[in-house]
Structures are given as structure tokens and as C-alpha cells.
Design a protein that fits this description.
Elements: E1 4-7, E2 23-26, H1 28-31, E3 34-37, H2 47-55
Antiparallel strand pairs: 1-2, 2-3
Length: 57
């Protein structure tokens, strides 16, 4: 399976009604890992704000 890059900002994940992650990059079958990219429309955001946002379904 080749690497893929997909927009997922409109799709709920495994948690009902939770839309965390704007893009997902799947790194093929040989690696079997995914990277999640979260975009924010803010000039400044702290790491703690990002982590709190991920934890809030």
C-alpha cells in the first residue's frame, strides 16, 4: 500500500462526534504508522492548549 495523505477534518473518528485531526498521513504497510496533523486558525497557541484540545471530545 502506498503512502496516503487525506483530509479528515469533516469525518468523526472512533469517538462519537469527535473530529480531531485535519489531515492524516498513512505511511504504507511496511511502516504501518499514521501521522495526524491538526490545524488551528490562531496566531499563537501553546502546546498545553493543543493537548487539552486533543483530550476534549
Amino acid at each position: 500500500m502506498p503512502d496516503t495523505f487525506e483530509y479528515t477534518g469533516n469525518k468523526p473518528g472512533k469517538i462519537t462526534n469527535c473530529k480531531v485531526g485535519d489531515y492524516v498521513m498513512a505511511l504504507g504497510n511496511s511502516i504501518g504508522r499514521k501521522l495526524v496533523f491538526e490545524n488551528k486558525d490562531k496566531d499563537n497557541i501553546s502546546i498545553s492548549e493543543i493537548i487539552d484540545n486533543w483530550k476534549t471530545p
